[in-house]
Design brief:
2 copies of one chain form a homodimer.
Chain A: E1 11-13, H1 18-37, H2 49-64, H3 96-112, H4 116-131, H5 141-146, H6 160-178, H7 182-197, H8 212-223, H9 226-238, H10 245-250, H11 278-295, H12 298-314, H13 346-362, H14 366-382, E2 398-399, H15 401-406, H16 426-435, E3 442-444, E4 448-451, E5 457-461, E6 464-471, E7 477-484, E8 488-493, E9 501-503, E10 508-510, E11 513-518, E12 522-528, E13 532-537, E14 547-552, E15 555-560, H17 561-564, E16 571-573, E17 579-582, E18 585-593, E19 600-602, E20 608-617, E21 629-630, E22 632-635
């Protein structure tokens, strides 16, 4: 039986860990990103995204008045104002999406906590966005500013349908949060144009960068209008059909391989291995799962399950990072998870969590929920600095600053977080996930409530009121106060890292969840034994042979130069080394090998001395300037 | 006191190991490459190199007759005849050099063994080359065919001075071997044009791809004309001066970093770290050492020594490969020696051997000679298939065919040798080194003969006749029959892999050589204890922590899928594992880990079972179709 996540407005996060992060997003990240999209951060790459809406608004007004407007090449747009006509579009082709993601994050934040100033700012941005919309509903600033005659001519490489998707997500979020429908109406007008343009009797194209699929389903859910669902289904059905739409339209003949990049090599329903650009992948899979939620398409669901299993069992870093290669920001082949070359984009892990939530709504699955936890507590959080003003796009598992500076193969590996990126998909994506965390904790149906993530808070759901007092990631203790509206089964996910737990009520376990019958007002305490532990990566992953990682609860730990000096590769643990936890830090009696003076010499056992090794949570790395970092550490047997 | 290598015509290789390889080069490689440069190998990339000389010859004739000739863009030349005017130049800008390297290899081969048919072919090629030379001595087919008015306008990116260098090397070799001076005269005419064009009072440029420096010294040595030496010195002195010549001429402003690629970031005399394109680097360092041999320039020699030490101690693979990154085919930073991403171009190891020989002529140095041995017996030989018709350009230390096919970061790693390359620098380079091996075995001066490489053969040198019966790489036994012309010291290099040796005459050791006084006709037997051994790579190299390589004598061994099945990373040795040698193969009782079914699990000691592991010499890998290969193997303590 399918279930659904709670509405955000009916949740209130009071978690000992997550409340602070949400506050950081509300008080620092969202205001900082507002400055960023308005190009007011000194020393950061310019965004141009608000500026483009202002320009597009003027063009739209001129067009309404029948005035002539200039034309610039859309396919040869120029990033910055040093090299282009200053009236032309600037930034990346998908720059509109940064504004939309900021709006979406602001909407979720307003949903959690009213904020007059923030709402005023958001309304101001929405006015700019809506002013840019053309009469026919079209709304993408690149083509509005540069060339109206070329819209929808290059779906493969340009991002109109991608920007539409983010517009729709923001619009639904803002409507749900504030009740204001101005942006929603704009999104619906654009959606109607898209539904008219694409389809069996129209253009048989589909997005180059997926997200419109899941966004159309959100519009369907907000309005009940079937055409939005139908168009989402159409996009997913058409994708990967041969002859390739892009080949026909763009007049090119390509080999199959080229479309792995955007998951258009075969139809999604036949896809079993996660390939290509990782963010595009998980956005597509999210859209596929959305279709399954509404249509019960068994073939598509089978593909969703195969893709989730492939990612979780063969293509996910221990940190929940996905996308092992910088080339195409893509999934690599099975079990190829290099630590020092990882891409593991913050957005990809966020997108995986989107996918996971949808899969959990179809049916509970402890493995998928555990993988989402892995991503959430590690790679997602790593994306942001402690003060919320610096960001990682790429989340490697091993960093040597010298390599980042001198080895062009590692140019993407930044040893410290950056202020802002021209291509700034990750920071606002992070803000919108954290701000809407209440939607990810649980799902419910008529007879059960499934707790997937132990995010403390107050949840008003159909089955009743659930108050979660959670100290999950610190002590492993989670307390539930439940006031049921009707009898239901409370299903508590047993984390994969926990061997021992106790529950203060009778329960039975099934498929990784502990099931408890709730018939009356109840208080239930679950205690997960939480202790530092050594984790082994499969020996089919070549990079980690002879090594292990340290974890505690959901957190992966790492060693940094700031605590342990240079040449982290010389450090090792014995499987018997005691791991001691205190105040968020793990220490161990380990070993340090003496550095070798010769490049090659006759093999002899290494000379080591005992040393204290300090581990910090992975998500906190890189907050103390440039230094070495390693997740996996050598194990001496 | 400086010493010199023997003249090739006074050497005759009779080595149990090397004679066979020389025969292979003579009977298979040189004839095969003749077909290749004439574009007669089916299924191989076209070379166009002979064809270009034919075209250029017609242009040169037309110009002599005062006829007008067509102009094609030189800076926008097109590789193949599908995309260009068929009368224009084809192939890479440096394609002439393949013809010259073939001629040089043929010359050395003729020096070792007369061959009427080969000499006739070479004479035919030389006629084509000389017919292409312009009246003023200029000889580079790209500019002769495409545009005479643009010669020497882009020294940085085009390769006129590089092709000249190979012409000069071939010309000197052919003259020394056959006494025929037609090609030498052509080279001298081109050299004279270069000497007139470049210099203090002329163009202050220098080659973008080095080799002209060492080639000009060869012309100086062949003719005694000082201007050739002076121009070589000029090129080395000008290189790296600021403002950069290339910036001035090409009207570009670059950052220093850009000139690391061709070692033009600072003047060579100040260079201490080997950086940039590895082949260019070792060719430059060879030229620098040549200048030192003739001028005793202490500053330049100090740079040569620092560069050699940097390569040997921090940038050389155990296989003698150099150039750890495909980006720019370049040296990476110190101790960055990844196995599976290695570039380790065959040509770079060959060029290192050129550099090493020159350094050994300045003064004997057991470490440099050992590094040359490492390169010669492993990466150089690996460049060629057992039948001499397939070649590796790149010589990795770990190969997973799936990665080569699916991971674009490893596109350069070929799991099997290729027929021929459009950019075919390596195969003819290999042919010219192997054919002139007699020049690399020893150096001599008035009072000493230094044996650097134990290549069996008959050497007629100034100090007398030295006959070496060598079974060096198989049994470690080498016998010397010496008929001295005067008393001298015989200095026998003690290989770095040998702890125990015996010599049938009184000796003392100094700086890695065993010194024996030779005053009369003598027979001396040296026996190096040779046995399979485990070799450790410095723990400053991150890729090899916890692993070791198997060697025997000068040969590095590796494991291949053909012998050991898939997932070579699951195999391990104990330091106590007995290594057994028989018929070129080493076997060991090792261990195989059971493959893990879960991607992540609580750490537990691996389940292993005993297994026989088979090692073959590294240079023989990839001769049995696509399969996994690994040099380093995990060590279980």
């Amino acid at each position: 039986m399918k279930s659904r996540h709670p509405e955000l407005k009916n949740t209130k996060i009071t978690d000992s860990f997550w409340s602070g992060i949400q506050e950081l997003v509300r008080n620092s990240v969202i205001p900082y990103q507002y400055e960023a999209i308005n190009d007011r951060i000194e020393g950061a790459e310019k965004s141009y995204s608000v500026e483009n809406f202002v320009k597009a608004g003027k063009i739209a007004a001129a067009l309404r008045e029948g005035k002539s407007v200039p034309v610039y090449p859309a396919d040869k747009w120029v990033y910055d104002d040093n090299n282009a006509d200053k009236n032309a579009f600037h930034g990346w082709v998908f720059q509109d999406s940064d504004v939309y993601k900021w709006l979406e994050a602001a909407a979720y934040s307003l949903s959690c906590k009213p904020d007059y100033e923030l709402e005023k700012r958001a309304d101001g941005i929405i006015d700019l966005v809506c002013a840019a919309q053309l009469e026919n509903g079209y709304l993408d600033t690149l083509y509005i500013i540069n060339n109206r005659d070329e819209i929808f001519t290059n779906l493969k490489d340009f991002h109109e349908l991608y920007c539409f998707g983010h517009l729709a997500e923001a619009a639904v979020a803002y409507y749900n949060s504030t009740g204001k429908d101005k942006l929603l109406n704009a999104a619906l007008r654009f959606a109607d144009l898209i539904c008219k343009t694409f389809g069996e009797s129209g253009v048989k194209g589909y997005p180059g960068h997926e997200i419109a699929e899941l966004a159309l389903v959100k519009l369907y859910e907000a309005t009940g209008e079937k055409r939005y669902l139908k168009t989402a289904e159409f996009f997913i059905e058409e994708r990967g059909k041969k002859p390739y739409y892009y080949d026909i339209v763009l007049g090119r003949k390509t080999v199959d391989d080229n479309y792995h990049y955007n998951q258009a090599h075969i139809q999604p329903k036949y896809q079993k291995e996660a390939v290509g650009h990782a963010v595009r992948g998980v956005y597509l899979y999210s859209g596929m799962a959305d279709i399954v939620r509404h249509t019960d398409d068994a073939e598509l669901y089978s593909a969703c399950k195969a893709l989730a299993e492939n990612i979780i069992n063969k293509k996910m870093y221990i940190t929940g990072g996905i996308g092992a290669t910088v080339d195409g920001e893509a999934f690599s082949f099975n079990y190829d998870l290099p630590n020092d070359l990882a891409y593991a984009e913050t957005c990809a892990s966020i997108g995986f969590i989107f996918f996971a939530r949808r899969m959990l709504e179809i049916e509970p699955n402890a493995q998928i929920a555990a993988a989402a936890e892995r991503a959430l507590y590690n790679t997602v959080l790593s994306g942001m600095s402690e003060d919320g003003t610096r960001f990682f796009y790429v989340n490697p598992l091993e960093v040597l600053p010298d390599a980042s500076h001198k080895d062009s193969r590692k140019r993407h590996i930044k040893p410290v977080r950056q202020k802002w990126f021209g291509c700034a998909c990750c920071p606002p994506n992070l803000a919108r996930l954290i701000s809407s965390l209440g939607e990810y904790a649980l799902t419910e149906n008529e007879s059960a409530v499934y707790i997937h993530q132990y995010v403390g808070g107050e949840y008003k759901i159909e089955n009743g009121a659930v108050i979660i007092n959670s100290d999950y990631s610190e002590s492993g203790r989670v307390n539930f106060m439940i006031t049921p509206e009707r009898a239901f089964t409370l299903a508590l996910r047993i984390p994969d890292w926990c061997d021992n737990f106790s529950i203060s009520a009778p329960y039975k376990t099934k498929d990784g969840y502990a099931l408890i019958d709730i018939t009356e007002k109840s208080e239930i305490l679950i205690e997960f034994e939480i202790k530092p532990r050594l984790v082994k990566c499969s020996n089919l992953v070549r990079a980690n042979i002879g090594r292990a990682a340290v974890m505690r609860g959901p957190f992966v730990y790492c060693i940094e130069g700031a605590d342990n000096g240079e040449n982290l590769q010389l450090l090792s643990l014995s499987p018997k080394s005691a791991l001691k936890y205190e105040n968020g830090i793990i220490t161990a009696e380990g070993f340090r090998e003496e550095p070798d003076s010769e490049l090659y010499c006759e093999y002899k056992p290494a000379k080591t001395e005992k040393t204290k090794i300090t581990f910090i949570p992975y998500y906190k790395w890189g907050n103390r300037g440039e230094n070495e970092m390693q997740v996996y550490i050598e194990i001496n047997n």
